[in-house]
Amino acid sequence: ALLTLTRKRGAATYAQTLQNIPETQVTTLENGLRVASEESNQPTCTVGLWIEAGSRYEDAKTNGAGFFVEHMALKGTKKRPGSAFEKEVESLGAHLNGYTSREQTAFYIKALSKDMPKVVELLSDLVQNCALEDSQIEKERGVILQELKEMDGNLADVTFDYLHATAYQGTALAHTVEGTTENIKRLTRADLASYIDTHFKAPRMVLAAAGGISHRELVDVAKQHFTGVPVTSKEGSVPALTHCRFTGSEIRARDDALPLAHIALAVEGPGWADPDNVVLNVANAIIGRYDRTFGGGKNQSSRVAALAMEHNLCHSFEPFNTSYSDTGLFGFHFVSDPLSVDDMMFCAQGEWMRLCTSTTESEVTRAKNYLRNAMVAQLDGTTRVCENIGSHVLHYGRRIPLEEWDARISAVDARMVRDVCSKYIYDKCPAVAAVGPIEQLLDYNRIRSAMYWVRL
């Protein structure tokens, strides 16, 4: 019977797959907490809290507080001190995880569907009763400081932090998520308690779930455990986000002792809800991505990948479209040998100009199919679905159905790609971050002059 079910599932068409996705139900409790879920026949479920909090809500003195709080929240509560919280999660055979980004914080648990009520109670305890014991704070302080040292060795992450620092200099988006070493050393229990009191409020939270659960039961359990979450902090509501102005500029951290150069270049992109994002994602799919470990050689459909392979321009490259509430970074990152930096930058910027001026329908069709495949991959597993629900409700106010995404993708044509790319890329001042042996990276003015073509 299982084999038959598997064969039938595999035989479903793409259109049938989109149509058969269960509806996402959303209920708002009296205190403003949004409860959203997608019910399926899975024996497991993932339940999580997505919170509108992150490094963008911090200032220079408190940068790193959110990341510190994430660590502390997983280390026990007033009701379950020390390792008791972890042991209770493990006794369910469940998996607990969390993360902090620039605009959101998440905690989620994957468990058996029958344990959903217990999971919700654990999550409510985690955000409402974080212990913040002094001894545990000092222990985690050491752990975080060690993490910061290890992160310094990840040059890709370092490059992207530099990119934010130069693109949004002087604003909250310039902060790293993890904070500075100096801040982590001096943050106090009062700082962490103030962060929780300010941001962990019901209207800023989404309780999301996916798997073999009932939405009505989820709402009932949420009412039992989350009605005590206040609407505002003691000081009142959190101030609205201020716009983080994008600046065309650069940061160069030259170190000739490193074997490879990491370069990231970006222009200002749109915010989460802007429809231009779909078109820009199609453009990035046209550019493609490349790593030396890939097969295909110079016959790859991506022009940049084919050139990189044929002329040994880089070890890897990948375009990105990072969105925030009201702004974003649209660009590419590549890793290359010191003597190939200029050639790879010339190739990548040339592809940007080609997208603005001569994108073809055939490559748009290929890119749209790639995006559809990536979109359907979001259905794999309850955790990915749950994260999709939580992020969407937090950023868009609703979960956008895959059918709607598919319609938006289908509407894109070559003219739209050329127009939207010209809007964001053509003759714009980019932000540049470079780390490693970057002597060959041209002067910023030369990079800026490659953001347009003079055609006779």
Automatic annotation (TrEMBL):
Subunit and partners: Component of the ubiquinol-cytochrome c oxidoreductase (cytochrome b-c1 complex, complex III, CIII), a multisubunit enzyme composed of 11 subunits. The complex is composed of 3 respiratory subunits cytochrome b, cytochrome c1 and Rieske protein UQCRFS1, 2 core protein subunits UQCRC1/QCR1 and UQCRC2/QCR2, and 6 low-molecular weight protein subunits UQCRH/QCR6, UQCRB/QCR7, UQCRQ/QCR8, UQCR10/QCR9, UQCR11/QCR10 and subunit 9, the cleavage product of Rieske protein UQCRFS1.
Domain Peptidase M16 C-terminal, first and last residues per copy: 187-370
SUPFAM superfamilies referenced in this protein's UniProt entry, alphabetically: LuxS/MPP-like metallohydrolase
Entry's Gene Ontology cellular component terms: mitochondrial inner membrane; protein-containing complex
Gene behind this protein: Uqcrc1
Compartment(s) of residence: Mitochondrion inner membrane
Family, per entry: Belongs to the peptidase M16 family. UQCRC1/QCR1 subfamily.
InterPro entries documented for this protein: Metalloenz_LuxS/M16, MPP/UQCRC_Complex, Pept_M16_N, Peptidase_M16_C
Gene Ontology molecular function, alphabetical: metal ion binding
Main location, first listed in the record: mitochondrion
Chain ranges of the Peptidase M16 N-terminal domain: 34-180
Organism listed in the record: Edolisoma coerulescens
Pfam families according to UniProt: Peptidase_M16, Peptidase_M16_C
Keyword ATP-binding annotated: no
Gene3D superfamilies attached to this UniProt entry: Metalloenzyme, LuxS/M16 peptidase-like
Domain of life of the native organism: Eukaryota
Name recorded for this polypeptide: Cytochrome b-c1 complex subunit 1, mitochondrial
Record key words, sorted: Acetylation, Electron transport, Membrane, Mitochondrion, Mitochondrion inner membrane, Phosphoprotein, Respiratory chain, Transit peptide, Transport
Membrane topology according to the record: Peripheral membrane protein
